[in-house]
Design a protein that fits this description.
Structural class: mainly alpha
Radius of gyration: 19 Å
Helix content: over 70%
Oligomer: single chain
Shape: flat
Distance between the termini: 40 Å
Largest sheet: none
Order of helices and strands: HHHHHHHH
Number of domains: 2
Number of helices: 8
Mean pLDDT: 86
Low-confidence stretches: none
């Protein structure tokens, strides 16, 4: 097998079958707690592939998030980028399969149940409780994504400016995204 095909199939890290299975099971578990979408579980994804296994560096992990978020298509594409970086196409199958299968089955079941019992006190309380949970998970994601640039004062200024922009104005958040891209292009973060 030539090197290009081997890289495509197994990825740059070259993990084996046992690791793919572990990757699949880990992303399956994350799928079941991803209230607010896969992006809310980034901190736990980072813990496995960067902190625990060392398959990716923090910068490589953030690159996967950025590529997946910038690509046209569903928000969950960053999971495929992580899977490919760790284990090639087999890694993509492990991470995407783990992320999509359980949540799809759960969404169909919960959707049917919620539609049937929409006015019940329990369903309304459960729905109201999901908002603070989602916010907490998103804050954890933000903390993980800021780690590689945490020593750069410009990064903290961008975070504070973005927070102010979102809470105090009606400006389009693309301005904050553009400022972050410019700071990164100039090498400030």
């Amino acid at each position: 097998m030539n090197d290009t095909l081997q890289l495509l199939l197994w990825g740059p890290v070259g993990i084996g079958a046992a690791e793919w299975w572990r990757l699949f099971l880990h992303f399956t578990a994350l799928s079941l707690v991803a209230i607010g979408g896969a992006i809310t579980t980034v901190s736990e994804m980072q813990r496995l592939v960067v902190a625990k296994e060392g398959w990716l560096t923090p910068g490589e992990f953030n690159d996967c998030i950025a590529i997946g978020q910038a690509a046209p298509g569903p928000n969950v594409l960053f999971v495929a980028a992580i899977g490919y970086s760790v284990g090639g196409l087999a890694g993509v199958a492990a991470t995407m399969g783990g992320s999509l299968l359980p949540s799809a089955v759960l969404a169909v079941g919960a959707g049917r149940f919620g539609a049937r019992y929409r006015q019940s006190r329990g369903v309304r309380a459960f729905s109201a409780g999901l908002a603070p949970l989602t916010i907490g998970l998103l804050l954890a994601t933000g903390a993980v994504l800021l780690q590689p640039a945490a020593r750069a004062p410009v990064a903290w200024l961008l975070v504070a400016g973005t927070l102010w922009l979102m809470l105090r104005t009606n400006r389009n958040p693309m301005w904050a995204l553009g400022a972050g891209a410019l700071a990164g292009a100039l090498g400030w973060v």
